[in-house]
Amino acid sequence: MSNLDLRPTATVCGGRAEVTAEPVRDLLPGRNVPLGESTVVRRLLPSLGRRMVGAWCFVDHYGPDDIAEEPGMQVPPHPHMGLQTVSWLHQGEVLHRDSLGSLQTLRPGELGVMTSGRAISHSEESPGEHAPFLHGAQLWVALPDSARHTAPSWEHHSALPQVSGGGLEATLILGELDGAVSPGTTFTPLVGADITLTAGTDTRLPVQPDFEYAALTMSGESVVDGVPLSPGSLFYLGCGRRELPLRADVDSTLMLLGGEPFEERIVMWWNFIGRSHDEITQARWDWMNTDRFGEVQGYPGDRLPAPELPNTPLKPRGRAR
């Protein structure tokens, strides 16, 4: 997924100093952002109130959108560095192409993880023959300094571990949850899970006290730690919990994101994550002038040009605004 904002904000985030070391209940509204020809996403992270949850640094929620008579998602080739992209669908299909030569159609319940490492480019599109509805989430994970210069890679996992009990069914996307371990590659301690709650569920999910967490309702109305959540908002929960109360009066689905607070301060601008303004400047120049990020074969259109850099250098900021 690309950040198509023509004036992306350049920010520095990360570090443990501003992580809440106790449970909190902070509801963060999203903002609507156009993506491609006919898709509008709700950008939930980074937000006006928070920039990271563990190593999760970017969350877009889209749909359910009726695309029966529309082209659906059409995101031209664009670059990434210093991060992983995580694709997750509830409805529809997305065709992934990348500069490694990968060509994969992702469907609901299947995990696509692209590790950009030092440089990669990819595109995402709804296939020509596609389902009438598109609904899902696109997420980024910041890579630690020890992994951000690795060779790029692509993973597709069609079978993922499940956690169930008390009206709860959870699919583990990344990391570990209640003894289950995802096959997806991670570089810092984190968790991503898709949770289904049947109507009448009232349960508690074991979590890690040294992780910070956030919840995103995908459908229905889940009640997380006593707070009702409608689709389209991110609910930040802080740290210090050993269990998370979950309830639903109607059938609902939500995503749980968490991880150890990311210790390093990062610079995130457009589709790049680095550690300095100069590093981001070099990446932009390389995308526009060299073959560092490779070439995506087969996409029926031009690649995305990089937006202009801001006139002022980056200023360090914390995880929360």
The biggest beta sheet, please? Answer: 8 strands, antiparallel
Multimeric organization:
single chain
The outline comes out as globular
CATH topology: Jelly Rolls
- At the first level of CATH, what is the class? Mainly Beta
Global mean pLDDT: 92
- The stretches of 5 or more residues where confidence is low (pLDDT under 50) are none
SSE ordering: EEEEEEEEEEEEEEEEEEEEEEEEEEH
Distance between the termini: 24 Å
CATH superfamily: Jelly Rolls
> What Rg do the Cα atoms give?
19 Å
Q: Name the CATH architecture.
A: Sandwich
Helix content: under 10%
Structure classification: mainly beta
Number of structurally distinct domains? 1
Cofactor: Fe cation
InterPro entries: Pirin, Pirin_C_dom, Pirin_N_dom, RmlC-like_jellyroll, RmlC_Cupin_sf
Organism: Streptomyces palmae
Protein name: Pirin family protein
Overall description:
This protein has 321 residues and is mainly β. The chain has one domain: Jelly Rolls (Sandwich), CATH 2.60.120. Helix content is 4%, strand content 49%. It is built from one helix and 26 strands. The longest helix has 13 residues, at 277-289. The radius of gyration is 19 Å and the shape is globular. The model has no long low-confidence stretch (mean pLDDT 92).
